[in-house]
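Issue 218. Parser rejects a valid record. Input:
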Amino acid sequence: MDDEPGTVRSARASTGTAPPHRPRLPRSRRPAGEPPLPGTASPWILMYHSVAFEKEDPYRLAVSPERFAEQIAWLHRCGRRGVSVRELMRARALGRDDGLVGLTFDDGYADVARHAVPILRAYGFTATAYVVADLLGRDNDWDAEGPRKKLLTVREVTELAAAGWEIGSHGLGHRALPGLPAEVLAVQARESRRLLEEVVGSPVTGFCYPYGAVDLPATLAVRDAGYDHACAIAHSPLTGRFALPRCYVGDRDGAWRLRAKRGRHRLRDAVTELRHGRREPRS
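Output the parser choked on:
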């Protein structure tokens, strides 16, 4: 089984970005009673990008509509309901997240509105679309080797929000955040949030790190910009509310591969929890 493709451009970009001193994730400034940060199993969140037919797909970002329909039908048969990360985290805070799985779509491709929305609607599922705030209606010019793909327009984003989808920020310009100066990180987090809130007319509380690349300063910038949660890709020393790990889903993934990925996610959770426990003695 491949190891989370999207790999060349996304998943593997997140590895090796955590500082060597294994920093602790900053504590949330949310009220008491919110889900704890490190040291607990993370929710199961699936990471999609594009839902379309693509003859050339070097980054393995596209899932055909037929395969996507099969994957969603399998989740439904397993008794799971697909929801946005926002809904998942709220349910988790109340201990009501059993049977829920987060569905996310990175980059904001327009084909998601055409192909994914009707399939999810048929099952009563929702999802999160992470969009690049300053590139709405343009294309994915950051992907040098991949096909040019249209991005969601302002109107399409507002329609998704009206349909119950969470609209989250994917930063500005689709830039990797690790290594950026503090003032640039602040602009990436705050300005992208402001722009999207003007579009959807409601608070934007979720963030997703471009390429899945995350380090401690990036998590601090996202937290300080007022977000409630943020998605990364890989498990890491930063795993927690502001670096939620996700499972890549591709066009090769049928039922048995999804089961295997679920098992691998749980195993990585257990390993991550053990490592957090060794660094943070419980009282």
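Fixed in the parser; the record now loads. Residues 10-39 have pLDDT under 50 and may be disordered.
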